[in-house]
Write a structure and sequence with these properties.
Number of strands of chain A: 14
CATH topology of chain B: Rossmann fold
Number of helices of chain B: 6
GO molecular function, one term (chain B): glutaminase activity
Radius of gyration of chain A: 17 Å
Strand order of the largest sheet of chain B: 2-1-3-4-13-12-11-8
Order of helices and strands of chain A: EEEHEHEHEHHEEEHEHEHEHEEH
CATH topology of chain A: TIM Barrel
Strand content of chain A: 25-35%
Number of helices of chain A: 10
Distance between the termini of chain B: 10 Å
Radius of gyration of chain B: 16 Å
CATH architecture of chain A: Alpha-Beta Barrel
CATH architecture of chain B: 3-Layer(aba) Sandwich
Order of helices and strands of chain B: EHEHEHHEHEEEEEEEEEH
Keywords (chain B): Amino-acid biosynthesis, Cytoplasm, Glutamine amidotransferase, Histidine biosynthesis, Hydrolase, Lyase, Transferase
Pfam families (chain B): GATase
Pathway (chain B): Amino-acid biosynthesis; L-histidine biosynthesis; L-histidine from 5-phospho-alpha-D-ribose 1-diphosphate: step 5/9
CATH class of chain B: Alpha Beta
GO cellular component, one term (chain B): cytoplasm
Number of domains of chain B: 1
Largest interface: A-B, 39 and 41 residues
Strand content of chain B: 25-35%
Distance between the termini of chain A: 9 Å
Helix content of chain B: 25-40%
Number of domains of chain A: 1
Shape of chain B: globular
Oligomer: heterodimer
């Protein structure tokens, strides 16, 4: 049986190391990504996701050299997102050992990128990534994080449109829950998993295994991604790269 | 021993090279006939669409040298993911003919009319059962065999005897195929940590000793 994936979502600031944010702000330095990858290899994680959170904002592409060093240490599936605007960049990322690319900001500036990439590299290589934030009227809307702009787009409709363009997977990141340990946005994730046929990765708000279990069992997510709980320990927020063991995950997910 | 990973512009050749290095085998990534000529073992990687894969192999004029190596000299070859699918005669994904070295074609998963409505692509870790004849490639030390899958199309073999291993996703399908020196794996051993390391080590050791 296919097991739901549990994915550490790690944030990069260009070549400047790993950081963890709260509500997409105040990045806190965590450490060296290669060291983290080595630990996650040992812990046999299901998959790793690296997002470069400043690439699009600084209008630069992926930091290939840095990513190559990270990928060469990674014997588990690796997804990268951040600053990707062309199929040539995707080709280069696949070549250095990255399996999947996450497309987010380019959905506002280069609307054909997902379709072009899916045609060339197959849908299963392309993750359509959506940041979601409450607007002034407390409605959930698609957030354009590189512009810090809450758009008028409905996240469920947007997820469907990315699927139609060819995204083989949808990543939903809840901005207001990022780093807050307040639980996933279970209702939103459920609406999206009901609306699309491709796998959905939930991200933002995980506080522990209970949230992971609920987002998979109740909300129908194919994968649960999390940052804080896999890079910090307990309440005191000391940095500790960690991951549940397979028996623990099997117990909550089967 | 020379291991060559075929570079045809589609695929995660770097990941395969990294994993081989990790388990103690040097390899080269190349599309030059002189380099491919000297290989004792070939890898055909592939992330992408079927027609683009065949088009790239044709444009780089790789098919004659591959046929010479694989069909005449019986050099072992391991196709991974799209690389496995290209070993078959064709795919629903495209209109081009595949290499056709193993009899069968690729079909697309479609669960829209089933009660479970399983998602496509089939993405993540799934269990694999080796065929009786393939036991020596798969470790018996591991309690179960789990590998990482990312695909929307699956192999439908004409001859069941060509199945190397099988996996269930909605139904049982051939997740590994083999005919003599030609092997294909739908999953990614190079990204399946200890499970992949063990399988690749066994494959390389067995295939190379069988040949020499």
């Amino acid at each position: 049986m296919l097991k739901a994936r549990v994915i550490p979502c790690l944030l990069l600031k260009g070549g400047g190391g790993l950081v963890k944010t709260k509500k997409f702000s105040s990045p806190n330095y965590i450490g060296d990504p290669i060291n983290a990858v080595k630990i996650y290899n040992e812990k046999e994680v299901d998959e790793l996701m690296f997002l470069d959170i400043t690439a699009s904002k600084e209008r630069r592409g992926p930091n290939f050299e840095y990513l190559k060093d990270i990928a060469s240490e990674c014997f588990i599936p690796l997804c990268y997102g951040g600053g990707i605007t062309s199929v040539d960049e995707i080709r280069k990322l696949l070549r250095i050992g990255i399996e999947k690319v996450s497309i987010n900001s380019a959905n506002f500036t280069t609307p054909n990128l997902i379709a072009d990439a899916a045609k060339l590299f197959g849908s299963s290589t392309v993750v359509g990534s959506i940041d979601v934030k409450q607007n002034f009227f407390r409605k959930l809307r698609v957030f354009n994080s590189s512009k810090r702009d809450t758009t008028k787009l409905d996240p469920v409709d947007f997820a469907k449109s990315l699927e139609n363009q060819g995204a083989g997977e949808i990543l939903i990141n809840s901005v207001d829950r990022d780093g807050m340990l307040s639980g996933y946005d279970f209702e939103l994730i459920k609406k999206i998993t009901d609306a699309v046929n491709v796998p959905v990765i939930a991200c933002g708000g995980a506080s522990g295994l209970d949230d992971i279990q609920r987002v998979v069992k109740y909300a129908g997510a194919s994968a649960a991604a999390a940052g804080s709980i896999f890079v910090y320990q307990g309440g005191n927020k000391g940095v500790l790269i960690n991951y549940p063991n397979y028996q623990q995950l099997e117990k909550i997910l089967n | 021993m020379n291991i060559c990973i075929i570079d045809y512009g589609l695929g995660n050749s770097g990941s395969i090279q990294n994993m081989l290095k990790r388990i103690g085998f040097r390899s080269v990534i190349s599309n030059e006939p002189e380099v491919i000529e000297t290989a004792d073992l070939l890898f055909l990687p592939g992330v992408g669409s079927f027609d683009d894969g065949m088009t790239n192999l044709e444009q780089l004029n790789l098919i004659p040298i591959l046929e010479k190596k694989v069909l005449e000299q019986k050099t072992p070859i391991i196709g991974i993911c799209l690389g496995m699918q290209l070993l078959l005669a064709g795919s629903e994904e495209g209109t081009k003919a595949g290499l056709g070295w193993i009899k069968g074609t690729c079909k697309k998963f479609n669960f829209k009319k089933t009660p479970e409505r399983l998602r496509v692509p089939h993405m993540g870790w799934n269990l694999t059962t080796p065929a009786q004849t393939a036991q020596n490639f798969f470790s018996t030390d591991l309690p179960e065999l789990r590998y990482y899958f990312v695909h929307s199309y699956y192999a439908v073999l004409e001859d069941e005897a060509d199945e190397l291993c099988s996996t269930s996703y909605g139904f049982k399908f051939s997740s590994g195929i083999q005919r003599d020196n030609i092997i294909g794996l739908q999953f990614h051993p190079e990204k399946s940590h200890k499970f992949g390391m063990s399988l690749l080590k066994n494959l390389v050791n067995n295939l190379i000793s069988v040949k020499s």
